[in-house]
Amino acid sequence: MLDDLNYKKILDQLFDGVYIVDKEKRIIYWNEGAKRISGFKSEEVIGRYCHDNILNHVDEYGINLCLNGCPLHQTLSDGSKLELNVYLQHKRGHRIPVKIRSFPVYEADEIVASVEVFTESFDHNKKPNAAFMMDSNILKEVLTDPLTNLPNRRMIDHYLNSKMEDYRALGIPFGIVMIDIDSFEEFNNTYGEDLCDQVIQMLGRTYSKAFRIADLVGRWREDEFIFVFTGIKSGALKMLAERIRMISENSSLRGETFKDIEVTVSVGATLVHQDDTALKMTTRCYERVKKSKAKGGNNITMK
User: What predicted TM-score, i.e. pTM, was given to this entire model?
Assistant: First the structure.
């Protein structure tokens, strides 16, 4: 299979990730697109099994598809052609939303392999995160968090005040979600400041990749992030808050010299109120984060 190098050269030119597994679900091919999206080189994965915690797919409910509902397994079993939206885990630990497609390879009417193609999911109709809308290098330096390259608190405050003005003048509703990393002080004491910085960077990459629907994703304080969503209702905001919690729980800092560091977050969310200010909103949201922490963490609170 794939003995003709011309086919490999063609597949390596694709922007999409492509990999092939044999009947035992052993990876026998991994293209350059798969390396670009996932961070894993072909020599790191060829010969390993697709369930060896490599891409570690989860769906929007946090279900690990490698353990329950693997599309490659289904394709190998009955020849199904499947298409799913999932979150893969990058080599560095953060989550990336992708659309995956799997289809069988036949030889003499027998399924001998399965191919998975995965493409990064983008919302082309959504404006980019505010961090990337600043053309001036000076402005970017002042308004961007240097550790995560996301908007910093100054930028978030400015943006929330502008959203509040839009709400008062035009009645455009919006909501915010705040997260705080659980047990961050214990992380710092156990792993040290450098690894804690890597955890924050990993979550920043996850959020900027997985929540492009947000108007803004920024770093609020040391171990806190804020998301801003416009034109949203209570049910949708709660669903997004739960997705943020789930994606955080399914991200981890992967390391070759240490055990994977798993992370959970406490989440608070609120919609704008009639008599709100930006300060009132963020204060209320932070109180809800504290309620989530009081429940033991890895929780969301909206009331």
Answer: 0.82
